[in-house]
Amino acid sequence: MNLKDKVIEALKSVYDPELNINVVDLGLIYNIDVADNNDVEVTMTLTTPGCPLHDSITRGVRYSIEGIEETKKVEVTLVWEPAWSPEKMTAEGLRLLGR
Amino acid sequence: MLPQTMGSETNIKLPFSFILFSLVALVLSQLLVLVNGQMVVNGSFRIPAIWSAAHLLVLGWALMVAMGAMYQLVPVAFLTPIWNEKFGFIQFFVTAIGISTFSWMLYVSPQNALIPGILMLLGILMFLIQMLMTLRKQAKPNILTAFVGSALVCLFLTIFLGITLIYSLQTGFAADYYQAIFKSHLLMGVTGWFTLLIFGFSYKMVPMFSLSHDFPMVQALYVYGLYISGLVITILSFFNGNHYLLKAGFFLLLAGFSVFSWHISIIIKKRLKKKLDNSFTFALVAIGLGNIVHLAAFMALWSVPNSLLIGPFVYLYLLLWIVLSIMGYLYKIVPFLWWTYKYSKEIGKKSVPSLKDIMNEKIVVPLFSLFVFAVVVVFFSIILESILIFNIGQFVLSLVFILISISILKVLKK
């Protein structure tokens, strides 16, 4: 398993506590960059600007990646463009919402 | 014990101070109504004991919850931090002492309620300053700002008119307008402040809790225009006594509320989350119930000598729309506050509970259904003037409020 796969796996342990769906299946993760020196940069969004869980979820994303032994520096960038939309969810995410 | 600060997040001691105080006031208000049942059934709403109970419920519970929730929700909904947290704590103590002494004085000696009333006014003014300074920092005002800002203006008018009433009782000032001022005080407090506030925050919370997406917002402008016009025209009718104007005002309020119900139903239809949480579902049911009361109040203007029904209708509106809405949202807000305090530092490091795990969802349906049932029983006991039915309904209602308060407090053990 390469480091990027490990990062995705770790991110699947970070749940939105309101919806009880992880950030990957919710479609919140836009991009994962793993540098040669194992620095990780994640670009992500939230379902709505002004989400009260803003700090908790982004912090959780950072913690989960920092928990992987090989990672060096972790940077999480929150963006609002493109805005989150339901199409970004995985089939599993939609299933968990009862869709 | 709760920590003093939590980094960049809200210091939850502030909203929780308001919420805990409010639960005590809620239970006390219901017990006061219970022991004064005979008066209520006889249609004597305007007696010191009922004034006291009503203000404990409306100010001690609903206003304090609304303030606590706003300290939490305003930074969320408007993307701007609270202006001054320390000022918030001072405001809490001033308002809490003001409301407690004011409610007590209304019970024992209403004509001497002016000083506690002024203390309460000071606390509420401090809150208004806090919100004004916070909302001023908002980058781009929107329709939510209009609803919440107008609600705050109505809150100020409510308090101002209330103080005028007490002053009028003491000195005879504006005695000819006492009735008009009293009705305006009631209208501004119940429909102006609370309804506009719930409208505003519903536009943030409904899409959030139902995960709705891609819904229109143009209807909110109509809701705002119709409801504000209704408030203004109704107040004018109180002062000039024109019955047609009163009907026009009530019609506009009904139209505004109906467009709001329709708009929320559009948002809900656009949801991604198929099964909604029970407490949130009851907050949505409250919208339908509020709409029914608006319709009934408008229809009553055409048929019944309306003064007979003012008390029972205000009671229904307060309990089935305002209290039920706030209660439904409280079951979402309290677990969130506690989760943020207890688990937001653990997420990503280890498995943490979801918000649903923190609040006992199983009790919501029976408890809230019993609440609606008990309120309807009390309403009919007043109409039928039956003390026996009133005591049964009010006893059940007091019990439900105690159980709801306990279940909210239990969250703090999770």
Write down the overall mean pLDDT of chain A.
92
Structural class of chain B: mainly alpha
DSSP summary: helix tally of chain B:
14
How much helical structure, as a percent, in the residues of chain A? 25-40%
Globally, the shape of chain A reads: globular
Distance between the termini of chain A: 31 Å
The number of strands of chain B is: 0
SS-derived structural category of chain A: alpha+beta
SSE topology string of chain B: HHHHHHHHHHHHHH
State the helix count of chain A. 3
What Rg of chain B do the Cα atoms give?
21 Å
Shape of chain B: globular
Assign a percent range to the helix content of chain B. over 70%
Query: Spans of chain B with pLDDT under 50 lasting ≥5 residues?
Result: 1-8
Query: Largest sheet of chain B, described in full?
Result: none
Describe the protein.
- The complex is a heterodimer of chains A (99) and B (414).
- Chain A is an alpha+beta fold and 99 residues long.
- Helix content of chain A is 28%, strand content 20%.
- Chain A contains three helices and five strands.
- Chain A has helices at 3-11, 54-66, 91-96, and strands at 15-16, 21-22, 29-34, 40-44, 74-78.
- In chain A, strand 3 (29-34) and strand 4 form a beta hairpin.
- Chain A is globular, with a radius of gyration of 13 Å.
- The N and C termini of chain A lie far apart (31 Å).
- The mean pLDDT of chain A is 92.
- The relative contact order of chain B is 0.10.
- Chain B is mainly α.
- In chain B, 80% of the residues lie in helices and 0% in strands.
- Residues 1-8 of chain B have low confidence and may be disordered.
- The interface between A and B is medium-sized, with 31 and 35 residues.
